[in-house]
């Protein structure tokens, strides 16, 4: 059917949306981007809600990043 062919387009849209949001908030605030989350250095304005398509706040933690490549 047509549904399996939709997957690449949905993934591409999600990646595009994520990259646009990172550009909007400033890449200098981003520590790491994973499949479905973004780790930020500090508070930035994001529209947070429980609606699909909006950001979800999952808490605040202190993390130590070990063996991460740098520029």
Biggest sheet layout: 2 strands, antiparallel
What is the count of DSSP helices, taking H or I runs of 4+ residues?
1
H/E series: HEE
The total count of strands amounts to 2
Strand order in the largest sheet: 1-2
Structural class: alpha+beta
Strand content: 5-15%
The whole-number mean of residue pLDDT values reads 79
The level of helicity is 25-40%
* Unreliable residue stretches: none
Radius of gyration: 15 Å
Distance between the termini: 44 Å
> Globular, elongated, flat, extended or rod-shaped: what is the shape?
globular
Please give a handful of descriptors for the protein shown.
single chain, alpha+beta
Task: Give a description of the structure.
- With 71 residues, this protein is an alpha+beta fold.
- It is 27% helix and 10% strand.
- The protein has 1 helix and 2 strands, in the order αββ.
- It has one helix at 7-25, and strands spanning 30-33, 38-40.
- A two-stranded antiparallel sheet has the order 1-2.
- The radius of gyration is 15 Å and the shape is globular.
- The chain starts with 6 loop residues before the first helix and ends in a 31-residue tail after the last strand.
């Amino acid at each position: 059917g047509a549904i399996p062919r939709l997957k690449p387009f949905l993934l591409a849209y999600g990646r595009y949306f994520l990259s646009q949001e990172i550009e909007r908030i400033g890449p200098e605030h981003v520590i790491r981007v994973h499949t479905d989350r973004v780790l930020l250095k500090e508070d930035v304005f994001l529209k947070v809600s429980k609606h699909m398509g909006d950001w979800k706040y999952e808490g605040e933690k202190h993390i130590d990043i070990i063996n991460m490549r740098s520029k």
